[in-house]
Amino acid sequence: xxxxxxxxxxxxxxxxxxxxxxxxxxxxxxxxxxxxxxxxxxxxxxxxxxxxxxxxxxxxxxxxxxxxxxxxxxxxxxxxxxxxxxxxxxxxxxxxxxxxxxxxxxxxxxxxxxxxxxxxxxxxxxxxxxxxxxxxxxxxxxxxxxxxxxxxxxxxxxxxxxxxxxxxxxxxxxxxxxxxxxxxxxxxxxxxxxxxxxxxxxxxxxxx
Amino acid sequence: xxxxxxxxxxxxxxxxxxxxxxxxxxxxxxxxxxxxxxxxxxxxxxxxxxxxxxxxxxxxxxxxxxxxxxxxxxxxxxxxxxxxxxxxxxxxxxxxxxxxxxxxxxxxxxxxxxxxxxxxxxxxxxxxxxxxxxxxxxxxxxxxxxxxxxxxxxxxxxxxxxxxxxxxxxxxxxxxxxxxxxxxxxxxxxxxxxxxxxxxxxxxxxxx
DNA sequence: GCAAATCTGTACCGCGGGTACAGTTGTCGA
DNA sequence: TCGACAACTGTACCCGCGGTACAGATTTGC
Lengths: 208, 208
Hints:
homodimer
């Protein structure tokens, strides 16, 4: 890794932490360069402006996030062939991962950007949306596989159920942070898991 | 309503909208006074500084929120004496209210403040937490009433289930906004409702 | 008609985002 | 060993914004 790339990554790390704690408008370039130990000119060598920093940051975040999800549900698929079990195991692994974060989840850029939307251009808002759409597609695929084998106890729209994963994670992060209770996020993921298990549990399948 | 109170309320309205779209640090006093039509001196007559504006805003938000929830679940209680029905009807009413918002939900200050926490003092962060704790207490009470009459199909911690309401609402607002789909938030609330119905549905109550 | 509430006007400070551009330092291959 | 390029530093400047400090004007209510 070259020296430039390293500085750039450190800049991105510090910027991400700061933005999650103070929002985009509340984060100054000056504080970032002070922490990295470069000058303002150095910052503008790496990024055209603050907006491009935001763009790069979100892109990196979404890529990492996808890699993590691929890892989790890849491991889940290694453990079982059953699509329902795969999702349930995956959610369990996800909850365990969240529970292992020592200081709790630091926050998600998607939510921060959502509540800073008017500071960004259309392109960045679209990138954020595509990130959430990718989650929907991922979980929608898994739910389709489950529905193909198990009859749900209620007639639920698969897109809505897929979006519920994103909803519980983003909401869980917020409530967990506000209450300063790191355990809350994994608990909420396990409640979602409980819902899915109940939804596909056998018994009284054909009651109207 | 006096002239001063009216100006103050308009200032708060405009500030709330701006902060939900641009975050606290991204919202300038200058833009607020420009829209209200007063001078900077006028602003500082009403609020000591930006921080006090944030405080007043959150307090107002939490009070209004409590009034709305009282109204919704009050109406639900008028319709039925059964605690499970009350919660299910209340969630239905809440979903309908969210669906009736023409431009979708504008966002929740609790989440914005959560992702701007380092811009605020301890007192404001505590106020935010107390708001979420009030939600927990409210829903925890309703869940206790349900548990006293119905055996849940799974052994769920009542506090966690209560927090799931907050989680789904805050998360639903975020995902709804990012995807620009106002229908998503009410749908997610109805999924939560579906979970609670399944959790307390009769049949196979005593399977281990 | 007087006091208090509700502002306006003016002047000022320092920080932060951003622009512009010239100069410096280290690395690496020909 | 030299030169090109990456990765910066240094300096100077502009303007918007948060905030301070007042003094003065206008409106409202009793």
